[in-house]
Amino acid sequence: MKKRYIRHASELVTCRGKAPKFGKExxxxxxxxxxxxxxxxxxxxxxxxxxxxxxxxxMEEYEVLDASGKTVLPGFVDSHTHFIFGEYRADExxxxxxxxxxxxxxxxxxxxxxxxxxxxxxxxEELKEAGRDRLNRMLEFGxxxxxxxxxxxxxxxxxxxxxxxxxxxxxxxxxxxxRTFLGPHSVLPQWKGKEREFLDEMIRNVMPKVREExxxxxxxxxxxxxxxxxxxxxxxxxxxxxxxxxxxxxxxEMYPLGGAQLAARVGAVSADHLLKASDxxxxxxxxxGVISTLLPATAFCLKEEYAPGRKMIDEGCAVAxxxxxxxxxxxxxxxxxxxxLGCIYMNMSVEEVITALTINGAAAVDRxxxxxxxxxxxxxxMVFLKYPSIYYLPYHTGINLVETVIKKGETVYxxxxx
Length: 418
Known about the structure:
This protein is of the alpha/beta class. The protein has 16 helices and 16 strands.
């Protein structure tokens, strides 16, 4: 078994814990100065100061990695993306810059529906190669686990194709991929006014095949005015839960429909977006333990107000942050941008943002017991930053500070390799 010893980390951020951190707990990142980590195979076996670990081991048994002057953190978890899709929608971005709203573009045939035909027409291999390239970019930013959604087919063949592509990439690429079925991502023109019938089509004819091939762990729905209402969303999520899916929900992004309350009611693992979440919704998410997954880069790209992350934390919620990488509303997977937006515009501390991108991101994909922190028993996923302190993350604004990424105990990226 290969043994590695990370030694003399200027700051070792452990984010200790096997469950999400709520409220004030988010500021506790378990920081160890002059820290060290012992790795056996793909698992972390011990952490502590370098002085403590030096006294416990025979150095000759270990490959030593010198982290002097570096910050070492858990690998980032991007817990909400749509990274498998065909073609792009740069024209829509320019329309929004001229004043068109996201919903007005969607109503005239743009938005999510505009990606459907290109994705249906793309071969599995084409989607796979494009997805591999996006995963490579994620890895450069220190992402070691990502959630990916289907939803750009809204028919059986394409939904299965997207999920199969993700399953194959998960087997081949260092970044672990958590797969989510999002068949009800939008309402195609032929289903307008027949949303319940469309959901029944997904439930009866598509989702059983997803389960049969073990293609997705989660089921999700876009609960939004003009898309799927609360009643239809609850119907779908209840059926999905009965079929064995864990639940996510696109909630309260454009209008305060009560998506956060629905997430609490059905026992969703996470509710995502939440720009318009109500005080009652925030209270219920906290009480039910739903992870509040915020997507600040989407609000930034749409020129919308940010989700009330500060209020959610102060009220005791467990907040995660994710990129929402997609071809329309948010074509970015920049972790430095998320950190800047979280700290500067959402009034979160850098410690809270780190928690949101590590252990709480892991909890949002139901993996807090395996990843998201640096502690004994966890998978050895971690990143080395160029600078000696976490405070460089927002300070060196929008710049990628990741130098090295370790995944399952192996070095899978180093800046000098590029």
